[in-house]
Amino acid sequence: MTNGFVNDLKLVYVLIDGVSDGISNLNTSPLESATTNNLDLLVQNGIMSEVMPVKKNFAPESDIAVFNMLGYNFTNHNNYPGRGVIEAIGSRIDFADGDVALRGNFATIDKNNNIIDRRAGRNINKKEAIQIANEIEDKITFSIPGVSLAILPTINHRICLRIRHEGRLSGNISNTDPAYGKINGMGITNETNIRKIKKCYALDDEINSTTTAKLINEFTAKSSSIMSISEVNTLRKLQNKKPMNCILTRDAGDRYPNLIPIEQKYGLKFSCVVDMPVEIGIAKVLKMNVNNDSESTEYEKKAKIVLEKLKTNNVVYVHLKGPDEFGHDGDFHGKTKSIEEIDEKFFGVLVENVDVNKIAILVSADHSTPCRNKSHSSDPVPLLLSANWVKSDSTKRFTELQAKDYGSLKLLNGADVLKTAINLLNCK
Hints:
Layout: E1 11-16, H1 30-33, H2 37-43, E2 46-52, H3 62-69, H4 83-91, E3 100-109, E4 115-117, H5 126-139, E5 147-153, E6 158-165, E7 180-183, E8 186-189, H6 207-228, H7 231-238, E9 246-253, H8 262-266, E10 270-273, H9 277-285, E11 289-291, H10 299-309, E12 315-320, H11 323-328, H12 332-353, E13 360-364, E14 381-386, H13 400-406, E15 412-413, H14 417-425
Parallel strand pairs: 1-12, 1-13, 2-15, 10-11, 10-12
Antiparallel strand pairs: 2-14, 3-4, 3-6, 3-9, 5-6, 7-8, 13-14
C-alpha cells in the first residue's frame, strides 16, 4: 500500500471531449440519439453521477477543465499559468519564465475586422500554416526594440505563439479572441455573439503588462496585414477556401507551472494516451508518461495502446477528440455519429478485452459543448464508474438525463472525481 492506496488497482479513465450537450431546453441530445451498445453495457455494470467540471456557472476551456478532472483545482487561487504556457510545453516551443505564450487561432475576418470564421474553415494544411507563420516571423517588426517572436502551427487552425523581450513580459493581459475570457488566469467561454476582434489590454497597472498588451495589439494588426497579401491566401481564394488573414489570441501566460506530480498525488502509477498540444502539455506538467503515436480518430489503436499500458500502470488516462468539434460546428448528426464511432471502435475493444473483475473503467467529459451553443457551456457532464465490485444503480445508458435522474452518486466537482472513484474502487 502506498499513500493509502492499493498498488494492484487498475483503472482506465476516459474523458470524451465535449461529448455532453447538457440538458437545458433539450428533448434529446447526441448522447441520447446515439447507438452506444458498449457504453450501455458498462453503465449497466456501474454507477453514474453528474459532474461540474470546474464549478457552477463556469463554462471552461479544455485545459482548466482537464486539470480539474484530474484533481487539480485552481478556482480559489490566482496561480494558474494560462493555457498558452500549457500549449507551449505540449508543442515543445522554446519557452522560459518571463516570455509570454498564447494560444492562437488562424481565423477569417472581413475588411472591418468582423470575424467571419474563427477557424478559417477548418481546412488548413500543415504546409500552408507553416508557410504563413514563417512569413509573419520574417516580416513583422515591433515598435519596441529587443522583441523576438515564434509562431508554431500545431493542428489545423491552432497555433502556439511565444513573444520574448529583453525585459520580462506578463501574461496578465486580455484576449483578442472575443469567444473567450479570463478569470484568475483560467480560460472561460464567453456566451456572447460578439464577432469583432477585441483590443488587448493590461489587467493590472504593471509596466510589463502594458508593454505586453501593446505588443499583442501590434502583432494582431501587423500579422493581419502580412497575411492579407500572402501567396497562401491567394491560392486559398482560388480554391474557394476562406483566407487565413487573422490570428485570434487568448490565454496568455508568463511562467512555467510547478504542480505536484500526479503519481505522487494519488500514490499510483499513471500513463496517458493523448493527442492535442494542450493535452500533451498537461500530461508533461503532471509528469505522466505520454503516448501520442496515434491519430485523433484512430480509436481502435488507442484502445490497444491502453490495454498494453495497463500491464505496467495502475491508471491509464485517455482523452478522446471528436464530438467537441461537431458541437462547435452545431452539427448534431455529426456529433451523434462521432459518439457511435467511439463506442464501436474504442469501447468495443475495451469491452471485448478487459477483465471486469480486475479492471475498472471511468468515463466522463471535460466539458459540455452543446450543438445549440456552438461553444462550451457551464452544463454538468455525465460520469460513469464501471466495475464488477461496485454495486450498480438503475442507470441504463451513458446520457445526461440518466446521470441526472438515476445516478446514485451525488453531484461532484471535477477536482473530486478521481479521488472519489479511487476510494470507491478500494472498497473492494
